[in-house]
Amino acid sequence: MAARIPEDERLGDLLATRAIDGLSEEEQEELQELAARFPEMDPDELDRVAASLAISGLRIEPMPASLRGRIEADAQAWLADRERAGRDAALAPPAAAVAQFPARSRPAAARGGWLAAAAALVLAVVGWLQVDRMDQERAALAARQGTLEAVVSRLEGSLAEKDAALAALQDPAPERLLAELQGRPDTLVVSWSATDDPAAGGAEGAVLWNPVEQAGLMRFRGLAANDPAVAQYQLWIFDAGRDDRFPVDGGVFDMPSGADEVLVPIRARLPVGEAVLFAITVEAPGGVVVSSRDRIALVAQPGA
Question: What's the pTM?
């Protein structure tokens, strides 16, 4: 059964003080006199009373009801063990029982009862506080993870948009590129001139080149359709700063049959400083690194 606390305020104060700090000689004598009023209490019960009073002074809020229940159950079990052990020991008179309580100079071992109970309570409270702190840290980490995931998602979306924009610049739709080039004042526009090559026929159109953006477009009308398995067209850009024997490759392309106008983006393999001539040759499938210039279908010369 749980320890009974005597209904005497002064006795309770002395027992609590004794359990925590110890008593002076005067207080020890006063305790002996007060304890004599409760002859039904044995030394073990007075020890339990001291522990109960010491523990009752602790106030830790808030604590879950489930945790408090476990602590109280452990305390009851410990007190029950002490009570069973006390039945096997000889009982001493109340005055002698009080005398067994050590004064301030007695060894600390005499306070083992309340220390054990207080230690159990402290360990339980510390464990609860640690669990509560871990829950709070987990919640904070989860919140930070959610924020980071949102940031990563936004970054991924931004990168996807940039990749799409870069791809559009590298391989733009001809109609879009034509509109952009025509709207730029620094875009160079030069008309094609047909040669006597059979592929040229009555071909016409123009080449648009922007030296700042290093981007361009070719417009064709009437250029003969080709069979990619037999031959392909290839653009060459002659740069004022380069040897005429090695013009810049502007890309290989095909002409479909039956088309009214064909738009072909320029894909220069090297930067062009100052374009002085554009030429369309007929080459073997896949194009060549250095053209023999045996078949030149169209030319466009700025300033001519």
Answer: 0.46
